[in-house]
Amino acid sequence: MNRISVCALSLVFTLLAACSDSGGSSTPSSIDFTTFEWTELNDDASWAARAGLHVVELGGRFYLMGGRTPEDSPIPGASTLWADVWASDDDGVSWTRILESDAPGHWPPRAYFQAVTKGSSMYVIGGQDFGIMSNFYNDVWTSEDGVQWTQLTADAGWTPRAGLRAVVFNDEIYIFGGSQFDDGAIIGPGGPPRIYFNDVWKSADGVTWQQLNADAPWEPRAGAVVVVKDGYMVLLGGEDGFLCEPQPDCDPPYFNDVWRSRDGANWELVTASAGWSPRPGHQCAVIYDNIVCFGGFGLPQNPVDVWVSPDGASWEQVSNSPWNAVDPEEVKYDFE
User: Fold this and answer.
1) What phi, psi does 91 have (nearest 5°)?
2) Beta bridge partners of 136
3) Is residue 191 part of a domain?
4) Is residue 165 part of a domain?
5) Measuring CA to CA, how many Å separate 325 from each of 259, 304, 322, 332?
6) Which of 23, 163, 193, 281 is close enough to 334 for a disulfide, judged by CB 3.0 to 4.6 Å?
7) Which residues contact 65 (CB under 8 A, 6 or more apart)?
8) Pairwise CA distance, residues 67 & 223, whole Å
């Protein structure tokens, strides 16, 4: 029995798969993803329900941090912003808060940021707060234990943004895309127009950043996913707007294309339209040498599906029930 853990908002699940072959070990050719099952580990974790959070694994421990909880308020986008850090030593079953949001000496509360691990450290990168006029960040912070944090830079050189994506590739941190300013669907008309990015940057230390491509061939976007597979960074999906009108007959401003790059500067289109519906806020992971994608935001309803691909070009739907969801209202998005 093989275990893969996934954290989704206030729910924590483990994905279980029964896999066997003559040698007793799993190989990609022996995996039948349709046999994978979801098991709920905790239906009410001790941290507040939230979106735009991030979870990383470091040293066998899960660290959950940041995010926002929308408030019932006439103020558009009003939210409780978090800068707390929670740890789990049992694959997400139980959680302990190790850092309060208002603790001094670490990053300000934020959501839709990125967090990665490299070596013995975790890194918090970019993001935004929420208000009548949100602040967007391009700072970088690091910690080895989730409690003691060091600011590596207050200004990484790239435009402050949220909804960006980051991965560690060949021992360097790469960031991709994102957006600045809030969507009119959230804060209403009258604010500055939302700006989307398709630039790519990298850093070996989180302090000094190098721009690799100011205008990548993929459309500017936020809410994409990037995974590392077979010596490539693979970018999947995203959005350049939240809503469309009139629903349900309009085409949402979402993507389901797949691109890949070996260096962040040069990109190859893998497919202009993957089998899954266009979406942002989804999650993808490389599991048993396959890309597995699930969740996300959709119009007129959220997608209830799980898709698998060995190469990013050909896709197979293996489930219509991520984390045992029975309808689109139970599908999660903006979790990482």
Assistant:
1) 60, 35
2) 128
3) yes
4) yes
5) 29, 7, 6, 9
6) 281
7) 53, 54, 55, 82, 83, 84, 85, 86, 115, 124, 146
8) 14
* Lookup: tokens for 194: 């939302």
Token digits for 206? 């989180």
Residues 6+ apart with CB under 8 A from 261: 200, 232, 233, 235, 267, 268
The Cα 276–Cα 303 span in angstroms is 9
pLDDT tens column, 79-116:
899 999 999 999 999 999 999 999 999 999 999 999 99
Residue 163 within a domain: yes
What is the tally of structural domains in the chain?
Answer: 1
Rounded Cα gap, residues 324 and 142, in angstroms? 35
CATH code of the domain in which 175 resides: 2.120.10.80
- pLDDT 10s digits, 233-246: 999 999 998 887 88
Phi and psi at 187, nearest 5°, equal -105, -5
pLDDT for 335: 81
- Is 71 part of a structural domain of the chain? yes
